[in-house]
Amino acid sequence: MLYIVMAYLWAAVLLYVLMGGADFGAGILEFFSTQKSKDKTRTVMYRAIGPIWEANHMWLIIAIVVLFVGFPVIYSTLSVYLHIPLAIMLLGIVARGTAFSFRNYDAVKDRMQGIYSKTFMYSSVITPLFLGIIAGSAVSGKINLQATSFVEAYIFSWLGFFQVAVGVFTVTICGFLAAIFIIGETKTEADRLRFITKAKHMSIAALTAAALVLLAAFKDGVPLTHWLFGNPVSFTCVLLAVVSLAWMWVSLFRQSTKWLRIIAGAQITLLLVAITYEHYPVLINLKDSEGLSLLIHHGSDKSIRALAIALLAGSVFILPALFYLLYSFTRQEEPVA
After folding, report:
1. Which pTM value belongs to this model?
2. Residue ranges of domains in the chain
3. Is residue 24 exposed (0-12), middle (13-18) or buried (19+ Cβ within 10 Å)?
4. Helix (H, G, I), strand (E, B) or coil at 189
5. Residues 6+ positions from 44 with CB-CB distance below 8 Å
6. Rounded CA gap, 306 and 65, in Å?
7. Is the per-residue pLDDT at 141 higher than 80?
């Protein structure tokens, strides 16, 4: 039962990065668009994410519930020592969702639309930035349970070169995913070419940010290169990700978009496997002490059993409804007679 719960936790994180990341990326692309093309970019992205944008946060909720119920020690450590970036991320989610709703559904179109748009764009950048900072903090080994000052316990635990670099990398990944996913939603050749160009730019930005993460890991003493290249599984995943990246670039230059979504999803999945495999089952690396392990720091057997049953049962009802939601909004509309 414990492994079932762990599998759901990993899958929820992956799906939130893929689907929620593409959702955040829509605002990131709008943020980095020129003033001239913002309206066109916004129109295409709204058509793509508008119907299902709120459902993407379901995966984050599942991950939080799994941690809260199944791994209370890990949950409490994250929520206490990383409460500042967590609060900023959650405020960003609320601000972004509110701005998106008012911008697109407000009955009165006035100057407030500009405020809604800026709120949506800025929060689309801030939220994944701090999501990445939280992820980087969890593995950086900077969380100090023996800290004696506020700054050491609640600031230096997340504010560092490596953590911020991971945050920037997360932002670029979200923009990359959005550009790739939205290509298939375009209706005109001009829009398709525009988002192909954006995908190229965001891919370059992601590669640059990845190099920054490696540099920051070396400087801060985070064994990232060992995690990525120190075992056959991680090394194979990185190698496949590089091969798929080359395939993606060839497809972009040939303007062949048939497999782009699958390639992009595979790349993120391979990277997540590569990073998590080496230090499994440790979820949080701590400073000057052993990390928090999923196999050790979990709840009671009864809690784990009940949680696993709830997740399995919930999947029977939730997943078909989610797939139907996606189907309903992605199928072609039938012409009206």
Report:
1. 0.92
2. 2-220+292-330
3. buried
4. helix
5. 182, 185, 186, 187, 191, 195
6. 13
7. yes
